[in-house]
User: What shape does this take?
Amino acid sequence: MAGADYVFTARRVRDGRFQAEPGPVRYLKVPADAPVPTPAHQMGGPGGIKAWVAEVRALADANPNPHAISPAGDVLVFVHGYNNDLPIIMQRQRRLAADLRAEGWRGVVVSFDWPSDDSTLNYLEDRWDAAEVALSLVTKGIKVLARGQENGCETNVHLLGHSTGAYVILEAFTQAEKDGNLFKSDWRMGQVAFIGGDVSRDCLSTDDDWSAPLFKRIMRLTNYANPFDGVLAVSNAKRLGVSPRVGRVGLPANARPKAVNVDCGEHFQTLDPNQATYFGTFNHSWHIGDRVFARDLAMSLEGGIDRQAIPTRRREGGRLVLQDAPRPAHMGGWWQDGQG
Assistant: This one.
């Protein structure tokens, strides 16, 4: 367990505090007992970025996962949605890390924090700073990771987008396609997952140009959909019902082969909000704090089991349905070599 939490943020600093407006990206090492990140947590100096990246990779690589397909360590970058203040962002990051650890995943969870706040905001895609925020994820996050890959770093990097965090991820890969050096370099991401994804279902179809750069660079996209997500129903209503949200209705029929949908509706109906741990509106934010979701995500990130055979998924009527089931009993020994 890390003694600190790692965040890179694109918020502006004014009067010694982070604000809900875009600013230069800062790399933070937040003490485990600090309730929120502050500018004082920045790893400063000319080597601040390199030191931050080196620490995150060292933590990940020092604890390889026997369940994973790669002997190297794992880093999961969590990209939050709109309407999030700093306390809830840290609560989610820490709980997500604890949930995954409890389910056997040994990687490091870091957050990309973009300018949002706990107030009434327009959706990110309607804001003037959308491209600027996404570009920060590319140039100060993905580009740094790509540079490490070119230098022989084998750390596996994954992305998890909640709500409009899915939009930030998609736009980030689109912006990366426009960066000449990054476009030409042979960098790859591992797994990508959306929870409560607040993007159009149709944008993940085979003929959509916006999502094409994402699928070119990743191993797999897992979309966790909940038909009872009321927040996404409101989002769809704002678009006059013509752009159903992928986190509510699931992937389109002509989804790209790298994408898989997991229907969470049946499991969601079994959850009692009064007995659950969650941060935000329950129907939209139940995932972080739920052990069944955490187990499924852990096995997805590891990549050791085919997406159709992960035991926390049941095939029913052509769908993959989330269910409460244990890991395979002897999974920890699957990579053992026999004696000659």
The chain has one domain: 4-327. The chain has a mean pLDDT of 88.
